[in-house]
Amino acid sequence: MSQTLKTRLAEDIKTAMRARDSGRLETLRFLQAAIKQREVDERTELGDAEVTSIIEKQVKQRRESIQAFESAGRTESAEKEKSELLILQEYLPQQADSAEIDAAIADAITQAQAEGAQGPALMGKVMGLVKAKLAGRADMSQVSAQVKQKLNP
User: Fold this and answer.
1) Does position 2 have pLDDT exceeding 50, yes or no?
2) What percent of the residues of the chain are helix, what percent strand, and what percent coil, each to the nearest 5?
3) What is the pLDDT of residue 20?
4) Cβ contact 97:89 at 8 Å
5) Short-list 131, 54, 132, 134, CA closest to 94
6) Which contacts (CB < 8 Å, 24+ apart) does range 6-9 have?
7) Per residue in 107-141, pLDDT tens?
């Protein structure tokens, strides 16, 4: 039986404690706190799909922070964020390759157009379809840029 992401996270926190890996431990505890906060807010037990969405959000925040720190010349802070980003990415599914992303975008455009979407609604419909297909497996900001490029050549 495969373990859930939450179980794996709890085990990895224990391992990081034993190894006295403070950087990893801090990142994993922060992630666990975000998961527990959402469970308390929604009064429900989160499954792997919801946990993956929280991890995606954390990854997106790290990427934005890295850009901000690098543009401000704060390389030490950017390096810390990069190490946290690598730790978080361990919990996401294997990333989709560019061919798979292109195929998902093409399928979504075809499906959205067949359903009659056009103009700005087409972009929203395509992104909704692609996000469902590639959840946790692709950087949606990059996918969004690719979709815009294909819709507005």
Assistant:
1) yes
2) 80, 0, 20
3) 95
4) no
5) 134
6) 6/35, 6/46, 6/51, 8/91, 9/35, 9/51, 9/91
7) 888 888 888 777 777 888 888 888 888 876 777 77
- As a whole number of angstroms, the longest Cα–Cα distance in the chain is 57
User: What is the C-alpha separation between 95 and 75, in angstroms, rounded?
Assistant: 27
- Tokens for 129? 């379809």
Report d(CA 116, CA 106) in Å as an integer: 16
| Cα separation, 28 vs 32, whole angstroms | 6
- pTM for the full predicted model: 0.72
| Residue 13, both tokens | 């926190």
Identity of the residue numbered 48: D
pLDDT in tens, 66-118: 999 999 999 999 999 999 999 998 888 887 888 888 888 888 888 888 887 77
pLDDT-derived band at 148 (thresholds 50, 70, 90) equals confident
Helix extents (H) in 43-138: 48-71, 75-89, 98-114, 120-134
Q: Distance between CA atoms of 32 and 6, rounded to whole angstroms?
A: 8
CB 47 within 8 A of CB 39: no
* Sign of the CA dihedral with 128 first, then 2, 90, and 35 last: positive
Return the structure tokens found at 31: 């992630």
